[in-house]
Amino acid sequence: MEQKKSKHTHIENILVGCEKGNIFYQELLYKHFYGYALSICRLYTYSNDEAVSILNDSFLKVFSSIKKKGFDNSIPFKNWLRRILINTAIDNYRKNSKHLYHLEIEEAEQIQTNTSIIDDLTAEDILNLLDQLPETHRLVFNLYEIQGFNHEEISLKLNISKSTSRVFLARAKKKLRVLIHKNF
Question: Among 14, 19, 55, 122, which residue has the fewest nearby CB atoms (within 10 Å)?
Answer without folding.
Answer: 122
